[in-house]
Amino acid sequence: MKMQEKIKTTVGVAVGIFNNNGELLLKRRKQIPSITKESYYGCWELPLIAVPETKEKKIPYNYLGLVVKREIKKRWGIDIFLDPIPALYPTMFKTPAGDYDLAMITVVEAMIMELPESIEIKWVSPSDLNLLAVKFVPAKMDKGKIIKNGEGLLSGKKRQFHMALKAIKVGSPFPEYRRTANEFLIREQI
């Protein structure tokens, strides 16, 4: 019996961070490149870390968590608490180039003292998230330059929407938000 070849994939981990009102943190996208070849500059998204490949022969069992914690602190100045083996909720798709992309969402506890001025954030309820998803439009580009910023939640009612709803469903301290997120998830299933 021939062994199947393993998938080689990029791995991203998004973090669900909540405020005292049970709302989820989104950040405005400021980078132009994306794995889909479109620009989402100006759209709202979850804080997400691409987990880098390592040349190390051995990695600790909690490598994923260590990378996420370090990068969230480095990029956004947010201290997070992440269980050494966190609950991760995966999504996967194939890029236009044919590569696999695996992104997961996990809920974390965070201490937000002060964010860098360059980071624009928004706190959203499930209903706010739904409105942003409906308003999604990628940025318009001409010859590699942005001529109009993107709007709404990156990916519309697709991947980011489902990941954010899952985070709210499992992590929001408010039962009403958890119920609403679950209702949206059920209604939006593909």
What does this structure look like?
- The protein has 190 residues and is α+β, with helices and mostly antiparallel strands.
- It has a single domain, classed as Nucleoside Triphosphate Pyrophosphohydrolase (Alpha-Beta Complex), CATH 3.90.79.
- The chain has helices at residues 63-76, 126-134, 159-171, 175-188, and strands at 9-16, 24-28, 44-45, 48-51, 79-81, 89-94, 100-107, 109-111, 121-124, 140-142, 145-148.
- The strands form four sheets. Strands 4-1-7-6 form a four-stranded mixed sheet. A three-stranded antiparallel sheet has the order 3-2-9.
- A hairpin with a 2-residue loop joins strand 10 and strand 11 (145-148).
- Helix 2 (126-134) runs antiparallel to helix 3 (159-171) and helix 3 (159-171) runs antiparallel to helix 4.
- The longest helix has 14 residues, at 63-76.
- The radius of gyration is 17 Å and the shape is globular.
- The mean pLDDT is 87.
Which features does this protein show?
single chain; 190 residues; alpha+beta; Nucleoside Triphosphate Pyrophosphohydrolase; four-stranded mixed β-sheet; three-stranded antiparallel β-sheet; 4 helices; 11 strands
User: How are the strands of the largest sheet arranged?
Assistant: 4-1-7-6
Proportion of residues in helical segments: 25-40%
Query: How many separate helices?
Result: 4
Query: What Rg do the Cα atoms give?
Result: 17 Å
Residue windows where pLDDT falls under 50 for at least 5 positions? none
The biggest beta sheet reads: 4 strands, mixed
Average the pLDDT over all residues and give the rounded result.
87
Query: How many discrete structural domains?
Result: 1
- The CATH class assignment is Alpha Beta
How many angstroms does the end-to-end distance come to?
A: 35 Å
CATH architecture assignment name: Alpha-Beta Complex
Write down how many β-strands occur, each being a DSSP E stretch of 2 or more residues: 11
